[in-house]
Amino acid sequence: MPNEEQLGNASGNGMLSRLIRGNPEIWRFNRRSVSLGAAIGLFVAWIPLPLQMIIAAATAIRLRANVAIAILCVFITNPLTMLPMFWMAYKVGGYLLGEPAATDLPNHVDHHEVLRTFFDAWQPLLLGSFLFGVLSAAIGFASLQLAWLVTHRQKRARNQRFKLGLRKRREEDD
Predict the structure, then answer these.
(1) 72 in helix, strand or coil?
(2) What is the rounded CA–CA span in Å between residue 137 and residue 43?
(3) In this structure, what are the phi and psi dihedrals at residue 140, rounded to the nearest 5 degrees?
(4) 141 is in which domain, residue-wise?
(5) Confidence band for 59, pLDDT divided at 50, 70 and 90
(6) Tally of structural domains, the chain
(7) Of 58, 25, 28, 20, whose CA–CA distance to 40 is shortest?
(8) Which residues contact 102 (CB under 8 A, 6 or more apart)?
């Protein structure tokens, strides 16, 4: 993966370059930036729009989260998962709005039918996507915070045991 300097040089002197160089936090691998980057990516992954990576990167830069993690988490929506994810979001949104979900597809598709279907489906889809996005982001953020905390405590305990072992050896040698 390119580092901050390589990306800054490749971008020239434009706005992206200034953003990349001006925010060292967006490349740091710490508990806050990684957890927030994952939450951003998981939320944006549920937005039924193209260019999710750009939305995630821009949001991560703005909130000073880890950009690479945000972009990586967006990839839960891919050609294999997109249809089931958004169908589930549509069904849940329709259920919450009390609207019957479309169960049959037309035999032939023309642009009028596609537009009519879109206008019928956008509210349930957006509601379901928003709910799943918030839920995914919250679970991702909390899971990473907890995992980071547990790992840090284990590492600290291991270091303390090591230091205690060194003290005992010194006392035995004396």
Answers:
(1) helix
(2) 5
(3) -60, -45
(4) 4-173
(5) very high
(6) 1
(7) 58
(8) 117, 120, 121
